[in-house]
Request: fold
Amino acid sequence: MATGTKSVRWVEEPKVGLFERMYLPAIAQGLSTTVRHIFKPQVRTEGYPEEEPKLPPNYRGVHRLNRDEQGRVKCVACYMCATACPAHCIDIVAAAAPPEWKDREKYPETFVIDELRCIYCGMCEEACPVDAIELTTLYDLTGLSREQMMFDKEKLLSVFDQTTNAGTDPVRTKTGHYGPAAELPK
Amino acid sequence: MTEFHLTYALLLIVVVFATVMTSVAYLTLAERKVSAFVQDRVGPNRVGPWGLLQPLADGLKFFFKEDIIPSHVDKVFYFLAPGVGVATALLAFSIVPFGPTPPPPAPVAITADTPPDVAVREYEQQLADYGSHRPFAIAPGLDIGILFAFALGSLVVYGIILGGWSSNSKYSLLGSLRSSAQIISYEIPLGMSVLGLFLFVGSVNLERIQDYQVHHGWFILYQPLAFLLFLVSVFAECNRLPFDLPEAEQELVGGFHTEYGSMKLGLLLMVDYIHMITTSFFMAILFFGGWHFPGLSGIEGTLGIVIKFLVLGIKVLFFLMLYLLVRWTIPRFKFDQLMALAWQVMLPLAIVNLLFVMVVLEFKMSPWLLTVTSVVTFLAAALIATRERSTIVSRPRLPQPVAA
Reply:
């Protein structure tokens, strides 16, 4: 349908009266708005490096590997997270648990997450049967090379220590709602 | 002849140059801060406390940037343009009395009571008195006064035209063409609006105009319409919004300075700010009595001078703030609206206003009458503008259904 037919809605120009034609009152009105903003600034900018943003407690940031009460890594190297991961960024090498660890058969010998590859979807956390892996509210971990951004087991455990010390445990799993396999038979 | 103090004048030039340049630098910061506050942002705050060293960083950046000269430019004029712009803008400041400066003596009339030799002696005495003051102006007592500034103001357009033309780029050329039309158009209401003041004072010397207001009251009281016209014209002369067509970032990239970089661009940007400072001084001195403020101008001595400096400074700051605030208040004019405003509105208003000034002065009527006529003229102009106009766009006839 060509334009100029019924699809075009014709709008009449509003009538401009004497008050508008004087312009000055309108300009004064506009200036008063401008000046009001000068004296009552409504700045909502966060000064980032000096001012930390308040993230929602369920923010999905850098991963951490949780420790149990004895300080051991909680992970049982079941590969559930690596299987669930849509970005294939988790690389686990499992090994037989030390004989004194009575509660499990396996533990992760290495546990590497490529933080550059991760899409921070939280599927690993959801898949983990023992709540060993969690996404924290840390958002500003940086590195100078791609290699530095491959976080190994020690690094991920240190993230646990860091967040626990800072009191910023993620809310999703600290409620104690563990997965079905979390409470292993003694 | 007035005595000419060479060292004093040189010293003054250095001080004024440094002050104007620093003011320009901090105006850019003020501009950015004001625009930030108006738009609910923070503005530059990284360099120094509250970003106070930002102008320094900007200046350094301009100096250390790679100076790219596009191969398609006309090199001579390309280099000349920023120089012409800044030099003329700075020269215009030389006549501004930026502090308390006495008016140069008026010629003594030779009458029957004062024979030529007496009159000459009296005049020389007055000149000697005048010369004993240290004037706060680089070119004090210049008889052509503000005409000098107007003449230089129209030379500034050469900076823009040369820059735009020599850049050999379409955006630049369009920007400079618009600018030439705009500045030439607004020169006329600019000059016409202050003619009334010259008729009152009988001189175009800024110190005399200022002195007249000290004794007879500020001109804003008698010539509000002239002030309005002058204000709008200087906005156009400075290429400030709502008249920033030469730059027009939205349509013309950078306008006439699209092809410029590094310090040459810096100089071109400086021109507008120097103009803003000069014209703010003109508005304060021509219409708001310069350093005069009721009750504060009687103070003598050093304290008096400081107070007068402060009074003038506050008036100038007010106009500079107005420049910055209007930018974020009024949207830009279209080119036809710009031309219509200058030729169809401001020029007739200026002529009518001038006519009233002539009538009042000729018949020795009260100057307050001009306040009334100014308001009446303004309202009449608004009333004329409200008249019904034929619209250009007419509703097309709907196509009739074709019979089967």
Confidence is low (pLDDT under 50) at residues 180-186 of chain A. Residues 87 and 119 of chain A are 7 Å apart (CA to CA).
